[in-house]
Specification:
- The chain has 14 helices and 15 strands.
- The protein is an alpha/beta fold.
- It has two domains: 234 residues, 3-Layer(aba) Sandwich (Rossmann fold); 115 residues, Udp-n-acetylmuramoylalanyl-d-glutamate--2,6- Diaminopimelate Ligase, Chain: A, domain 1.
- It has a six-stranded parallel β-sheet with strand order 2-7-1-8-9-10, with helices on both faces. A five-stranded mixed β-sheet has the order 11-15-14-13-12, sandwiched between helices.
- It starts with 6 loop residues before the first strand and ends in a 6-residue tail after the last helix.
- The model has no long low-confidence stretch (mean pLDDT 93).
């Protein structure tokens, strides 16, 4: 296996902490000094079908953003499908999985100046099939950058637990990046957290402020989540949803206190509310709604549907009720998608500004190429 190409394993203390965000931004920052950068997510849990193969969605994002010149199947060698764990427990094939990961890493690192390796979940995820993040980092002879959520007590406590498992596998954790800090608490949390991590022997290498845009789903993501379909203006599906409103009040009150980029959810037979929203859309440039969902598998009459066609408002339908739709949106995990230029540019800027990339390279024992 390749042991010479510089590499960094991006781990985290829990899911949805910012591994992909950090990986995406780091690749962008490193390209200033390393011309050819590879990426691999050895074990992926969220996958999409690409040319008949199950590929982790984060690998697709990195490939499409940076044109990594690595075969997708090597960027995502193992996709943990629903029956994967049960099959492994009944018929362990550990050596075959290890061989696949190492072979894919060699292909990923071929003629590359640097490789980013992204883990999945916390350090112990994958232990059930003998490929925890700590074990995979060890197999690939990689040092680890640990991503933690904002705070003081909990992030440090969880960092200690994760660090212990990496140490057990003789993997060095070079430091910590804290993500999603509220801007108004940035200076205070940064300083206290830095001291706290120093006390347990970890260096704080970055502190990334929370950016609301990164937590806002697109209409396309919402539509997929609720098993919906677009009636009008699917081409506007990349609009972001900053808030949601269930149209359970009278038509006269639906605009009361509503912020920009709010998604209106309303039963399809509430024509009074639907008409008020559509009329305002046609007459007011400061219209607050970014889209509308007609819930409960109900649709308004033909005249209302004709009015919808005359407005620029994206409209979706769903067979779910309004409360279920709202709950699903509130609890959904928002991922950055390929082609989401605004989010990708923001992520690149956040990492460049708030993560000490030169110090990371120093701790890896490598320098940027000329």
């Amino acid at each position: 296996m390749n042991t010479t190409t510089p590499r960094l394993f991006i781990a985290a203390t829990e899911q949805n902490t910012g591994k992909t965000t950090t990986s995406l931004g780091l690749v962008g920052s490193l390209r200033a000094g390393f011309e050819r950068i590879g990426f691999i997510k050895p074990v992926g849990q969220r996958f999409v079908e690409v040319e008949g193969k199950r590929i982790d969605e984060d690998s697709v994002l990195i490939r499409d953003t940076y044109d990594t010149q690595v075969p997708l199947e090597d960027m995502s060698p193992i996709a943990v499908e629903p029956e994967f764990t049960r099959r492994y427990i009944n018929h362990a094939n550990h050596e075959a999985l290890v061989k696949r990961i190492r072979h894919s890493f060699d292909r990923t690192a071929w003629e590359k100046d640097f490789v980013i390796i992204e883990g999945t979940g916390h350090a112990g995820v994958g232990s059930v099939f003998d490929l925890s993040n700590a074990k995979v980092a060890s197999l690939l002879a990689a040092k680890v950058l640990l991503i933690v959520p904002a705070g003081i007590g909990r992030p440090i406590d969880e960092a200690v637990l994760n660090h212990a498992l990496f140490l057990k596998e003789q993997v060095e954790v070079i430091g910590v990046v804290m993500n999603k800090i509220l801007p108004e608490k940035y200076d205070f949390i940064s300083e206290i957290a830095r001291r706290g991590f120093e006390r347990i022997g970890l260096e704080l290498l970055g502190v990334i402020p929370r950016a609301d845009i990164l937590t806002q789903p697109s209409l396309l993501q919402v539509c997929s989540l609720i098993r919906g379909e677009f009636l009008h203006h699917e081409e506007e599906g990349r609009r972001r949803v900053a808030d949601i409103l269930i149209g359970a009040m009278s038509a006269a009150n639906i605009f009361e206190g509503v912020e920009r980029n709010t998604l209106l959810i309303v039963p399809g037979d509430r024509e009074d509310v639907i008409f008020a929203a559509l009329s305002r859309c046609l007459s007011d440039e400061s219209f607050p709604f970014c889209g509308m969902i007609l819930s409960d598998d109900l649709r308004p009459g033909d005249r209302m549907l004709e009015l919808m066609q005359s407005t620029p408002l994206p409209v979706m339908t769903s067979d779910l009720d309004s409360y279920t739709i709202s709950s699903r949106i509130h609890s959904m995990t928002v991922k950055t998608l390929p082609g989401d230029a605004e989010k990708i540019s923001l992520i690149q800027g956040l990492i460049s500004q708030h993560v000490n990339v030169p110090r990371i390279l120093e701790k890896l024992g490598v320098g940027e190429t000329e």
